[in-house]
Amino acid sequence: MNSEIRSLEPKELWNKFADLNAVPRPSKKEERVIAFMNDFGKSLGLETQIDEVGNVLIRKPATSGMENRKTIVMQSHLDMVHQKNSDTVFDFDIQGIEMYVDGDWVRAKGTTLGADNGLGVATIMAILESSEIQHPAIEALFTIDEETGMTGAMGLKPNWLQGDILLNLDTEEDDEIGVGCAGGIDVTAQRTYEEESVSEGKTAFKISVTGLSGGHSGMDIHKGLGNANKIMNRLLFDGFENFGLRIHEIKGGSLRNAIPRESFATIVVDSIQSETFEFKTSTLISTIKKELSLVDPGLSIELEQVDLPTNVMELTVQQAVLKSLYAAHNGVYLMSLSISDLVETSNNIAKVAISGGKIKIECLTRSSVDSTKLDLVNKLRATFELIGCEVTTSGDYPGWAPNMNSPILKVLDELYQKINDKKAHIAACHAGLECGILGKNYPEMDMISFGPTIKGAHSPDERASISSTQKYWRFVKEILANIPIK
Fold it and tell me: Which of the residues 79, 172, 173, 344 is marked catalytic?
């Protein structure tokens, strides 16, 4: 299957992507891909180092005639988001990604593709291996754990890098040059509860919310996509208000940085009301599907009878949790007043797990302004503390402030227009890039971000454009040949 990918142009890039995607590399489990990159660098006879947290650095001298140009850092992250469809049998810990060509797109079979940020990694590998591409001295930096904490970038020590310019290859629209990004923070609410025994005369149902588009909780948060956790809570709230529905367990979402695509709950109602409950819930399901039909036409909500569980949540806690999840903010919180059409602050209610006396709700709050990020965190904290949860924050990372006077921005802006006969879109994004963190230890480094077109990142619908990758590859080579003199 991947032989089809290896025949695509540019072959040097797609072959490296196929090599990389054969290596399992979920976030926080990057041992094999770190070893893979270490072996790759050493096989080329290049200076290769691994730091204490697992970042890999490969240094390559300038090609002939380029020795007087500024040293560049080419940077991408090694880990990938591991999402799959519920009916896909796949183990990210041991399997390589199964890819195929679909028209102008490269896709994966039922899983995320890993183009985010694997195409960036593959690009750098192809440059390192090439004996023909002109370039200045390169420091190839491969960071770890970008997707679930940015611990690689956070753990990068000062003075390890000597480069003057950083090229981050993690932007996902080929006509965009990135000059800024949002920061983020994880918000987690937890508490325990007592369970009550299920009495006689009850009927149990499993509610399944599936088929949502999902997507990147930063780049896609403004699109009005369905959030499986919010949809499930709406169904449960209605069932509780009208039929005294009781919750046995809920499991929704899987990753903080992915808009949740699926949620599953087991509930019980009085048997005497079960038919009416089914009818009324089916009506609400139709309403929700109609509301989301333009953005999530694949939404499926199923209600099926199952065996009766022995326990349900304590009544008062259940009521409080359903209300708090209804009240908790999800989606865009504020739009930027300084940059047109940029989401400033948002929240993703990413995971809801309720079972066996334990509640855990996980969110990812993003903002390009620290004060509004804190404002939204406090709003969430207040919402969940009111129902007795302990609310903690972790993984706080800074945004990347735009520098419109950046010298490397001027180079890329002029080159893009020269090559494509039109101007690039210069923009900040609502995703979290590592540039903001790297800039704390390397404040004098001139930074820019760009990349090929990738759609559906962080979901099994992730796909990379073949024609865009060809366009991007030409742009990369032109940039390397036009790095300014020291």
Answer: 79
